Amino acid sequence: MKNFHLKIKTTIAFCYFIIALSVLFGGQGYAETVSCGPLNSVDRTICEASLTQCGDRDTDSDKACRKGFREGAKKTGDNKSDACKSFKSNNKAECENGYNAGASKQDALNKEASAQAPSPIPGSVGTHQCGNLSDKSENVNTKINFGCLGSKAPGGTGPIEDLLYALIRFLSNGIGIMMVVALIGAGIKYTTSEGNAEQTMKAKRQIQNIIIALFIYLFTYVILQFLIPGGIFK
Q1: Residue 159: C-alpha distances to residues 25, 118, 191, 201 (Å)
Q2: Do residues 228 and 190 make contact, with C-beta atoms less than 8 angstroms apart?
Q3: Cα angle 220, 223, 226; round to 5
Q4: Fewer Cβ atoms within 10 Å of its own Cβ: the N or the C terminal residue of the chain?
Q5: What's the CA gap between 209 and 106, in Å, rounded?
Q6: What is d(CA 159, CA 201) in angstroms, rounded to the nearest whole number?
Q7: What distance in Å separates the CA atoms of residue 105 and residue 50, rounded to the nearest whole number?
Q8: Of the candidates 37, 41, 40, which has an alpha carbon nearest to the alpha carbon of residue 51?
């Protein structure tokens, strides 16, 4: 019986010895773990990244690293020394390493967000559309009405092409108005020449030149309407 009690005590003492060794040399294995909890999407991303980078154990070194990671992501303080000045020796080094990793992670997130941001539509501040492409973002909207047909232009018309057609229409209309004004002026000059042969001859020559220019204008009109799909004059 005495030997039995001795064996029990020896076994209990051995178990205590094993537990003591485990706590002494492997205590970090029993450390509690931490989680991110309820956070918004951005803060949760940083929190989860800090757990991946630094570990999720509730130890001084891991906590220092995670704090540095969060400070690096927020880039608070002038530098990592200011962010980690509350730590000492090894824990300070862990904090500074975490700070560097956090800053790099935040830079990567910023670049990713910039890459995913939609590109602004050229000239989107205006209301006058130039071009009639199926991809609306390729058309150009302007504040000034340059005479583009926009959605009324034939399908597949690019903004530069539409603007060029508008310029041709503007010049053509201007030439037409100039010819009408010149013809009226030549007619007035002819009627007021009062038998002056020289003035009468100049007026007749001017009227003749205007009529020739009118025929050239009409010929150009027909050619442009024929060459350009859908016609240029709307």
Answers
A1: 74, 21, 48, 48
A2: no
A3: 150
A4: N
A5: 74
A6: 48
A7: 9
A8: 37
The set of residues, in sequence order, having a beta carbon less than 8 Å from that of 34 and lying 6+ positions away, is 51, 56, 57, 58, 66
- Written as six digits, the tokens of 130 are 């130039």
Tokens representing 198 are: 């020289």
Q: What is the C-alpha R_g of the chain?
A: 43
One-character DSSP codes across 22-83: HHHHHGGGGPPB----S--HHHHHHHHHHHHHH-SB-SHHHHHHHHHHHHHHHT-SSSHHHH
* Beta partners for residue 130, in sequence order: 140
At 73-84, the pLDDT tens digits run 877 555 677 778
Joined together, the tokens standing for residue 132 give: 């009639």
Give the pLDDT confidence of 25-65 residue by residue, as tens digits: 444 444 455 677 666 666 778 888 888 888 878 788 888 88
